[in-house]
Write a structure and sequence with these properties.
By secondary structure, the protein is mainly α. α1 runs antiparallel to α4. Helices cover about 70% and strands about 0% of the residues. Among the domains are: about 110 residues, Transcription Elongation Factor S-II, Chain A (Up-down Bundle); about 120 residues, Leucine-rich Repeat Variant (Alpha Horseshoe), CATH 1.25.10. It has 34 helices and no strands. This is Vacuolar protein 8. Pfam families: ARM_PUB (PF25598), DUF7032 (PF23005). It comes from Salix dunnii.
């Protein structure tokens, strides 16, 4: 039988317009259950019948969406004791009456027998509203407690390799339970929803595609039931991690409810809301929306409160770090005392809080000299140096973040470097160069390399502290990058006369450089770096003497003859003044 005939037949049968034989399907059913089964079959058939309709496609898609919601609701309550309720029976009759009207509209659209487009559009809009009202009426009745978990049919979760239709049906069933179930059913459905989105991201796409779920999740964020709020926040936090779906959440108006959760939700709900906002404000996206709802104030209050947990403070810091990219919001944070708040947080024993607060301080001070000075003034340098201190137990990640922040906040200012040195930073850096593991040594070397390119006073201090001998040790490292940083840093330090004299006092230093030079291939990058160091040492009489009297002089001559420009310069340097007679016959250009 064609879909249209079958649908019409079912509708007429259900409305008492036919007197057919008893169908087998209803032989053992009570009248209320028979009516409910008829409604489910009518709606399913009506959905199928409407699919080929070409005209008013958008309107019919809206109608089908409502019919699917309605069908899911009816299927979920089919085997409940609640179907005996007279209110529900009356509602099913109303659904069937609407289905009959909808069938007449569908038939006219299929036959193109409607009288006018505007009139048909108006009739279809009214039909969408009518089915939406049925859905809301069902929700209202069962929220009152008529439907309970104990009597509802439980749809099994699809297997790992389930098709999309099965997954969609399962999600729609969960949606129905969230909409019309009692508290226990709603919670159970939300927990199941969270489980599937965590384990399989295909469910996230289905949730976004299935109408109303996102809107319902957003509405549940304002629920007075803390358990529902917590469960909804968990699902939202997962969805917000997908860039392609963030706009859907924003379009559903999620920012305001998330801020309200931060202000008055449970601790667990607040944590989930902060994590969601951290993802939604990445790259300063939606910053003004967060600010407009009072989010900046709420987040600063969380970070400043002694009652806030580390699990809440870390994502809250992350949101504020994202918002600091907007200058006006950054200024507001500073006026509200954010700098001193986050310097206090940097002293926390919790690694996550430490790292988040350090990242915030770096972000807020980046490219802004006045804020950088404020961080220094408020004690930021002392806090960072303490985190970096090898005598205090810290995670390697915390130390790494502290060192990077020190570089960014201090190395551009001579006065800040002086403050650093007064706190013992040089000794700390030297400790990690000598005793750290490979990654710690490399980080310390990079910092020392940058520090060696600052003021002459700093270079002198590094020379006195013993950095030159440590740089020498890195000159034969396997990594060219490490060799290059060590060579450039050493060249920078020996450019200071006091450091040159100290360096050549140990004959092993110059001898080691010459030995490495002999091992390197002609024109290699490392060879050029070594020659540049030797060139700096020729500015010192003792240095020239050690090089000229070494057994490696012939090697330097060969390099000059091989057109290595730095070697030519070195030969010329060694050939001047009182060493000219000693080097008579050495190649000249």
């Amino acid at each position: 039988m064609p879909n249209g005939v079958f649908a019409k037949s079912l509708i007429n049968k259900s409305m008492g317009q036919e007197n057919p034989k008893q169908d087998q399907i209803f032989q053992e059913s009570s009248p209320p259950k028979r009516s409910l089964r008829q409604a489910i079959e009518v709606i399913s058939s009506l959905i199928s019948y409407s699919l080929p309709i070409k005209v008013f496609a958008v309107k019919w898609q809206l109608i089908r969406n409502k019919l699917e919601e309605l069908n899911s609701s009816l299927i979920a309550i089919e085997d409940c004791d609640s179907c005996q309720n007279p209110i529900l029976s009356g509602m099913v009759s109303a659904v069937l009456a609407s289905a009959r009207d909808c069938y007449d509209l569908a038939r006219r659209c299929v036959d193109l027998s409607y009288s006018g487009k505007l009139l048909m559009q108006s009739d279809l809009d009214a039909m969408v509203a009518k089915f939406d009202r049925h859905v809301r009426n069902l929700s209202g009745i069962f929220t009152a407690g008529i439907l309970s978990q104990g009597f509802a049919i439980v749809v099994s979760r699809p297997g790992v390799n389930a098709c999309k239709d099965d997954m969609r049906f399962y999600v729609r069933d969960l949606l129905t339970r969230i909409k019309i179930g009692d508290l226990e059913m709603k919670r159970h459905a939300l927990v199941n929803l969270y489980d599937v989105v965590v384990e399989d991201e295909k469910y996230v796409k289905i949730i976004v595609e299935v109408g109303d779920i996102v809107n319902i999740l957003v509405s549940l964020l304002d629920s007075m039931e803390m358990e529902l709020q917590q469960d909804a926040v968990k699902v939202v936090a997962v969805i917000s991690g997908f860039d392609s779906y963030k706009s859907i959440l924003i379009g559903a108006g999620i920012i305001g409810p998330l801020i309200r959760v931060l202000e008055s939700g449970s601790e667990i709900s607040k944590e989930g809301a902060a994590r969601s906002l951290q993802k939604l404000t990445k790259n300063s996206d939606n910053a003004w929306s967060v600010s407009a709802y009072g989010g900046v104030t709420a987040l600063l209050k969380i970070c400043a409160s002694v009652d806030s947990t580390a699990e809440l403070i870390s994502p809250a810091c992350g949101v504020l770090r994202n918002l600091a990219g907007v200058d006006e919001i950054k200024r507001f944070m500073i006026e509200e005392g954010a700098v001193s708040t986050f310097i206090k947080l940097a002293r926390s024993k919790d690694e996550g809080v430490q790292i988040s607060s350090i990242e915030f301080l770096q972000n807020i001070a980046s490219g802004d000299e006045s804020v950088r000075q404020l961080v220094v003034k408020e004690g930021g340098i002392r806090a960072l140096v303490r985190i970096f201190d090898p005598k205090i137990a810290r995670s390697s990640k915390s130390r790494e973040m502290a060192l990077r922040a020190i570089e960014n906040l201090c190395f551009s200012s001579a006065s800040s470097i002086s403050v650093l040195m007064s706190y013992g930073f040089m000794d700390q850096l030297l400790f990690f160069l000598r005793n750290g593991d490979v990654s710690a040594q490399e980080l310390a070397l990079k910092a020392a390399f940058k520090l060696s390119g600052t003021s002459e006073e700093t270079k002198k201090a590094m020379g006195d502290a013993g950095f030159m001998s440590e740089f020498v040790k890195f000159l034969d490292a396997k990594s060219f990058e490490v060799r290059e940083m060590a060579a450039v840093a050493l060249t920078s330090l020996v450019s200071v006369p006091k450091n040159r004299k100290k360096f050549v006092q140990d004959n092993r230093n110059v001898g080691f450089l010459l030995q490495l030079l002999d091992q390197e291939e002609t024109n290699s990058g490392s060879k050029k770096l070594l020659i540049s160091i030797l060139l700096s040492l020729t500015s010192c009489n003792s240095g020239r003497k050690q090089i000229a009297s070494s057994g490696y002089l012939k090697n330097i001559e060969k390099l000059a003859e091989a057109e290595v420009s730095e070697a030519k310069r070195l030969v010329r340097k060694l050939s001047t003044n009182r060493f000219r007679s000693m080097l008579n016959g050495i190649w000249h250009s």
